[in-house]
Q: What sequence folds into this?
């Protein structure tokens, strides 16, 4: 059995007296499409932040690709192949759309050993990514001129441009229309087919069910279910805590 | 425009300026010009950390003073070789001292850069706000330290006596003027190089959204440290010739609050996202300040500077360069429709 | 070791600390709770000192009375400044660079304006109880320090009560932690923040009176308080009034001992040095959240 790409062991994190994560275990095999759901405040974002380095976990461990990444700062983890998109898009506002994509190319892809894109290759790669999310015609616009959907696509594109092995999409579809949701799901599946392991955090159940090969449910900082999507949504505890009837 | 060409053009302009002043023959031009050039360097230096990265340094006077006092220290050392050094070192030391000014400038830059590194390492991992307050604290700690250090004169101050004349230039002030011109070229070239490089992109991400910058792979702490070191070093270098310019230095003049204000006001008024913005702000503001000081008073002059800073920060945050860019942008839009 | 000297240094330090608490209360509210870096606050304190000076000079009134009468004016000033700050900066999201530059400009302009009007001579107030001293055994309590310290502690206690007992006070504490929850309770967070900021500005009036009672004042006196105030705020833990008091007393005592045994010229370095140290080692402070 090959090494899981991400292995979380008894992860714990508190904020003052509040326990955000309470001994979470999670092991993600390479290439999986994992859906992570749970009510607001259940610790999903905290989990993402601990995996990506925006926060440091207090107890337990995070192993990525066989390497312990616990103490590492966010950019070090990104360079090793963990990328995330933010729940509320955070584009670099003083730059154009294309320049936003250039940042991970310059600072993540080009920073990896053995990889050095020339200026021309960089531009090509940038356009490739933008074309994947259908934003290539907005390349020289400011993020302020983008619609909601386009902002979220830019957010995902920026994470994709870092050429991650693991991508965490944090509620990238909130507030989108049905067809827009389908667009994003299709995009993520395409990425997965290229070999990227993806963890999708969402409330939109349609998207989650369409996308996930495996479903994990987090409630009050604890994992209460983990398995095949069609089984998990029938689980009594999950229904009671989150899904409702 | 490639950088070597840029340097060449700046150098030609500088040379032309120097010879023009020399032709006019009035030394006042060199004295006033030195001050303006000093501000150009300081404003540009401040902007590398403040404008590009978004980390405000209120303690600019501190880094400037490091440069001033490293010169005073080495000068005093050179003057008191017999008291300070043991017998066997005195002869070689007499040969080395007094150190030529260009060397003093380099030393000052190194010391100031190191202090910037140390302070940055302590405080840059915190929010920008705490960094700003820490810079203020540092300036005061430094000033207290200097005031209590009698070797460099303490609160009584120190005298530095420059030679009257120097070969090729003639009056010493012309030599100082040229040195400052060189520093200006260095500062502007550095700022422009940063702006056009990967480093500049990284700085901008830190300014825009540090959390997102880290998530996209930008090593924010390292870059902030680089900015702090470069900025601090340039400030120190600007301060190194100051004792020779002014002759008598006491802590109040080196740690002058107007340096701190001008270092912030000039870039913010001129424009913080463009390498020439601080220079434009420095030229405009120091000219204005000279005029007001002479016609009204120096206190009113400071008042006007402060009010201008507040005004621009509220109304024209992108500075004059920003206003110009918007105006050009609007003209283009209107001509298209 | 001169025990008497040490005891009196500590007592002076405690009284100084009580005064520092009043000076810092405003920042504790504006920075600790509202996240507004009002570094101009010390400048406004000096403004308060000069107002007390002028009215004391011309009408012979007690500075503390003057300060209390001036409270509404400072409160109104706070409202104006907050409105400008909100419209220009806070509304548009994070741009702390400009906000900082704004307040720095305010600090600078205040100092220079005072310079223009009053010049650089030291000013002090003429009050009957300055110069006297209460003695208990070997311990000396200079009245000019005792009175401000006691009134300052009273003001501090009043603030703490207000924040914990009244509706608006609790709303202020709430807005610092969760503005959205506040909105759900049909309370306008902006209005609450404006009130809180104005209260913080009002404390400057009293603090200014205390300052000029304790020592003579010049326009640039504000500068040495910037670091001190933030040092106390950070050391005590942002947003915690009790923490601010403890930190203020601590710094007062340390400064007093340093001043007594090593000379007054080292005193500024104490609080600033402590600030740097705290930021480096434990940024959340003693009682921080």
A:
């Amino acid at each position: 059995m090959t090494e899981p790409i991400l292995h979380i062991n008894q992860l714990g994190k508190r904020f003052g007296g509040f326990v955000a994560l309470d001994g979470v275990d999670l092991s993600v095999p390479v290439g999986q499409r994992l859906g992570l759901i749970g009510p607001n405040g259940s610790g999903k974002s905290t989990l993402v932040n601990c995996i990506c380095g925006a926060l440091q976990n207090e107890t337990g461990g995070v192993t990525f690709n066989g390497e312990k990444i616990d103490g590492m700062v966010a950019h070090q983890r990104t360079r090793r192949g963990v990328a995330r998109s933010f729940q509320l898009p955070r584009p670099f506002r003083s730059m154009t759309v294309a320049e936003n994509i250039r940042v991970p190319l310059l600072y993540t892809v080009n920073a990896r050993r053995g990889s050095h894109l020339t200026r021309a290759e960089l531009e090509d790669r940038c356009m490739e990514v933008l074309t994947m999310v259908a934003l290539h015609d907005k390349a020289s616009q400011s993020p302020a001129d983008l619609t909601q959907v386009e902002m979220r696509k830019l957010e995902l594109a920026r994470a994709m441009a870092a050429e991650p092995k693991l991508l965490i999409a944090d509620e990238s579809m909130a507030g989108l229309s049905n067809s827009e949701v389908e667009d994003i799901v299709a995009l993520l599946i395409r990425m997965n087919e290229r070999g990227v392991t993806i963890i999708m955090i969402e409330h939109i159940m349609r998207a989650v069910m369409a996308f996930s090969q495996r479903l994990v449910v987090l409630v009050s900082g604890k994992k209460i279910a983990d398995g095949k999507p069609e089984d998990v949504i029938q689980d009594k505890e999950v229904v009671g805590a989150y899904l409702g009837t | 425009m490639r950088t070597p060409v840029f340097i060449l053009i700046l150098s030609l302009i500088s040379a032309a300026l120097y010879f023009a002043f020399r032709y006019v023959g009035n030394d006042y031009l060199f004295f006033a010009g030195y001050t303006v050039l000093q501000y150009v360097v300081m404003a540009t230096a401040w902007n590398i950390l403040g404008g590009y990265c978004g980390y405000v340094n209120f303690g600019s006077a501190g880094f400037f003073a490091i440069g001033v006092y490293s010169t005073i220290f080495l000068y005093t050392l050179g003057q008191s070789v017999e008291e300070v050094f043991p017998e066997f070192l005195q002869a070689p030391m007499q040969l080395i001292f007094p150190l030529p000014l260009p060397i003093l400038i380099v030393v000052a830059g190194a010391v100031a850069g190191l202090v910037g590194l140390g302070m940055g390492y302590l405080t840059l991992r915190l929010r920008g706000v705490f960094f700003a307050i820490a810079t203020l604290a540092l300036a005061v700690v430094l000033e207290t330290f200097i005031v209590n250090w009698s070797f460099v004169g303490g609160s009584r101050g120190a005298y530095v006596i420059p030679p009257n004349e120097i070969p090729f230039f003639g009056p010493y002030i012309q030599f100082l003027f040229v040195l400052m011109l060189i520093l200006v070229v260095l500062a502007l070239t550095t700022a422009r190089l940063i702006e056009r490089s990967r480093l500049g992109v990284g700085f901008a991400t830190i300014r825009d959204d540090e959390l997102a910058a880290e998530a996209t792979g930008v090593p924010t702490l390292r870059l902030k440290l680089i900015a702090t070191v470069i900025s601090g070093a340039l400030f120190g270098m600007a301060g190194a010739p100051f004792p020779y310019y002014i002759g008598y230095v006491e802590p109040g003049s080196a740690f002058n609050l107007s340096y701190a204000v001008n270092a912030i006001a000039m870039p913010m008024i001129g424009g913080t996202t463009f390498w020439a913005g601080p220079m434009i702000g420095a030229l405009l503001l120091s000219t204005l300040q000279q005029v007001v000081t002479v016609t009204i008073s120096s206190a009113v002059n400071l008042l006007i500077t402060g009010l201008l800073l507040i005004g621009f920060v509220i109304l024209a945050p992108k500075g004059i360069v920003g206003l110009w860019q918007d105006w050009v942008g609007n003209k283009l839009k209107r001509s298209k429709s | 070791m001169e025990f008497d000297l040490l005891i009196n240094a500590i007592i002076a330090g405690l009284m100084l600390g009580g005064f520092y608490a009043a000076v810092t209360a405003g920042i504790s509210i504006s920075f600790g709770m509202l996240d507004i870096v009002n570094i101009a606050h010390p400048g406004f304190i000096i403004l308060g000192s000069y107002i007390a000076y002028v009215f004391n000079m011309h009408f012979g009134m007690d500075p503390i009375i003057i300060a209390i009468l001036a409270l509404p004016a400072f409160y109104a000033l706070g409202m104006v400044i907050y409105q400008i700050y909100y419209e220009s900066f806070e509304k548009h999201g994070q741009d702390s660079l400009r906000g900082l530059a704004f307040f720095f400009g305010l600090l600078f302009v205040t100092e220079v304006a005072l310079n223009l009007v009053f010049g650089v001579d030291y000013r002090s107030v003429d009050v009957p109880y300055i110069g006297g001293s209460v003695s208990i055994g070997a311990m000396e309590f200079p009245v000019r320090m005792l009175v401000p310290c006691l009134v300052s502690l009273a003001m501090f206690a009043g603030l703490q009560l207000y924040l914990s007992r009244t509706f608006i006070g609790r709303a202020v504490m709430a807005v610092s932690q969760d503005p959205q929850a506040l909105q759900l309770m049909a309370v306008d967070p902006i209005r609450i923040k404006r009130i809180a900021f104005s209260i913080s500005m009002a404390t400057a009036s009293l603090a200014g009176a205390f300052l000029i009672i304790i020592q003579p004042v010049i326009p640039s006196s504000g500068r040495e308080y910037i670091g001190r105030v933030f040092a106390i705020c950070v050391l005590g833990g942002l947003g915690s009034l009790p923490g601010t008091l403890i930190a203020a007393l601590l710094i007062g005592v340390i400064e007093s001992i340093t001043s007594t045994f090593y000379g007054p010229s080292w005193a500024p370095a104490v609080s600033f040095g402590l600030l740097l140290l705290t930021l480096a080692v434990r940024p959340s402070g003693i009682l921080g959240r």
About this structure: Strands of chain B lie at 158-159, 165-166, 170-171, 248-249. The radius of gyration of chain B is 21 Å.
